[in-house]
Design a protein that fits this description.
Non-ribosomal Peptide Synthetase Peptidyl Carrier Protein, Chain A; about 500 residues; AcylCoA_DH/oxidase_NM_dom_sf; Butyryl-CoA Dehydrogenase, subunit A, domain 2; binds flavin-adenine dinucleotide; eight-stranded mixed beta sheet; Butyryl-CoA Dehydrogenase, subunit A, domain 3; phosphopantetheine; alpha+beta; two-stranded antiparallel sheet
């Protein structure tokens, strides 16, 4: 068995923030890593560990993935996490202290670790989608068994219109999600490259639909749905984590939305992978009109939040468009029949639901309050319910320190990066970085260029871990010094990155 170790206590959904280090030594690497929530960690024969590579002279080499066998000296496993579900699979912390990893156990080259990570997660996301299809079928099976036998005030529960509608929706969801899993699997069987955007959509939509299904299962079983002996609570608990692991829905939608541009991965998969050029064009038009309406409107307090909030919603729309496209493709094939047309109608309705929700948000008179207003509002709840640190009896593991009642930090003013180079960069180097960022923003399909200054955090511009790759590449070519994508995390503004480049001796006029 193999385990994949990426998550760290400080860096979960943001892989660029990882602190684990692999330092180059003779014949290989010394790995220092601290990971948590690693599925199968203590049971695996080999651990696949994501760390930041560091050269002998301390210069960064970018993310790398190293294979660590279970008996490697310096590898230690921490206690098993007491999880809400997925209890057939151990989750534990993993610590590597100076573990020697020979060169032959590095996957791809140093600096190409994110490629390995994205590949691993792409396949895992398709796997989650497939798992959701099976689990949704199981929910439907249990619901049907109970409803067929249970008499309620209106008669047999199965004949009740609410039950009937839910089971119908569930079978449509199963049919459509199965169509998407099959379409991606067919592309892989045909030796096509992994369609990452489609895998991402499959994971998000699958886990969200399974969560709905598991909730309906508990509801349809009534009080029996709440009893441990009836499988439903376990289904609900197991399903819940799928919206979080392999990337939480929010980060993935945000990424999908940020990348939604004409001829983006999502549109290409729709048009060519699924053979739905009309739907791809419709999605393109809808996204353009949503962005056009959003230009100039201010829904959130911060500038970056405007972009991110919109990307999130557009990502959700893209994901449901891909689900709809897969349903259209399956219906157009030899499947046919009443189930096909009903499922198609359902998939169209779900897509329209997201589109309408976005329109309603854009119509709303009120924007969203700032973080400090929210904290103040919620802080006042303590008068009614107190503000306690809660710990279940009989459980030894303490709640996470981030859940402590005391010392809740106020939203911080944007802090200077500790890694920030002390001196200010020259104009030429700042211009180089600014232009590379601007070029990426322009290629990202945004109708209007967000205003940004030399101290605007890159994260506020929607630059996520995938976006850092092309930007770093361009800067590397122009500045003529090695630039790994993670540097955009360590030096998160134009000023900071330009100062770092100058400190590396990048010629100020290089490539400008
Ligand atoms: C049962 C289980 C098994 C796991 N197995 C593994 C494993 O095998 N290997 C491994 O490496 N990890 C594993 N994990 C860890 C899992 O991948 C992380 O929990 C997940 O990536 C989220 O990271 P985090 O917990 O640090 O959440 P955080 O990063 O603290 O995020 C918390 C929440 O904030 C929101 N959020 C975060 N970023 C954004 C954003 N950019 N925009 C909007 N909202 C955002 C999301 O709602 C997210 O759920 C496992 C976790 C569990 C529970």
């Amino acid at each position: 068995m193999a385990a994949y170790a990426q998550t760290e206590p400080q860096a979960g959904s943001n892989p660029l923030a990882i602190r684990s280090r692999a330092r180059r030594v003779d014949g290989g690497w010394h790995l220092d890593a601290e990971k948590h929530l690693i599925g199968l960690g203590a049971w695996a024969g080999v651990l696949t560990v994501l760390a930041k590579g560091v050269d002998r002279d301390g210069s960064p080499l970018g993310p790398m993935v190293l294979l660590v066998p279970e008996d490697a000296p310096g590898l230690a496993h921490g206690p098993e996490a007491l999880t809400m579900g997925m209890r057939a699979m151990v989750q534990n912390t993993v610590r590597c202290e100076g573990v020697f990893v020979p060169d032959a156990r590095v996957l791809l080259a140093p600096g190409e670790g994110m490629q390995v990570a994205h590949d691993a997660m792409g396949f895992a996301r398709l796997g989650v989608g497939a798992l959701c299809v099976g689990a949704m079928k199981r929910c439907a099976q249990l619901m049907a068994r109970y409803a067929a036998r249970r008499e309620v005030a209106t008669g047999r529960l199965l004949d009740n219109p609410v039950s009937c509608a839910r089971l119908h929706e569930l079978t449509c969801a199963v049919w459509a999600l199965e169509a998407l899993v099959e379409a991606i699997a067919a592309a892989l069987d045909a030796r096509e490259p992994l369609p990452r955007h489609a895998c991402l959509a499959c994971k998000c939509v699958g886990s969200e639909l399974l969560w709905e299904a598991a909730d309906w299962l508990v509801q349809m079983l009534g009080g029996r749905g709440y009893l441990e002996n009836n499988a439903a609570p376990q289904m609900l608990r197991d399903a819940r984590v799928l919206r979080i692991l392999e990337g939480p829905t929010e980060t993935l939608y945000m990424h999908l939305g940020g990348a939604a541009a004409p001829d983006s991965g999502a549109e290409r998969f729709l048009a060519h992978g699924l053979g739905r050029p009309r739907l791809a064009a419709e999605l393109g038009r809808t996204v353009a009109s949503i962005r056009e309406r959003a230009a100039g409107a201010r829904r959130f307090a911060g500038d970056g939040a405007q972009v991110q909030g919109l990307d999130y919603r557009i990502g959700e729309l893209c994901a449901f468009a891909i689900l709809l496209g897969a349903a259209e493709r399956r219906a157009a094939g030899d499947e046919g029949g009443a189930q096909a047309s009903a499922a198609l109608e359902w998939a169209r309705a779900r897509y329209d639901r997201v589109r309408r929700a976005i329109a309603a948000e854009q119509d709303a008179a009120h924007g969203y309050p700032s973080a400090s207003v929210l904290l103040e509002r919620i802080g006042a709840y303590a008068q009614a319910i107190g503000d306690v640190d809660q710990q279940p009896a009989g459980v030894e593991q303490l709640p996470d320190p981030m859940l402590r009642a005391a010392d809740l930090p106020q939203p911080p003013a944007p802090a200077a990066s500790p890694a920030l180079a002390p001196r200010a960069a020259g104009d030429a180097m700042r211009r180089l970085v600014r232009e590379s960022v601007t070029r990426w923003l322009a290629s990202d399909g945004r109708p209007s260029m967000p205003a940004f200054g030399d101290d605007t955090p890159f994260a506020e511009l929607g630059i996520d871990s995938l976006a850092t790759v092309p930007i770093a590449l361009e800067i590397e070519q122009r500045a003529a010094v090695p630039v790994v994508p993670e540097l955009l995390y360590d030096y998160p503004t134009v000023n900071a990155l330009a100062a770092w480049l100058e400190a590396q001796g990048a010629p100020a006029q290089a490539g400008i």
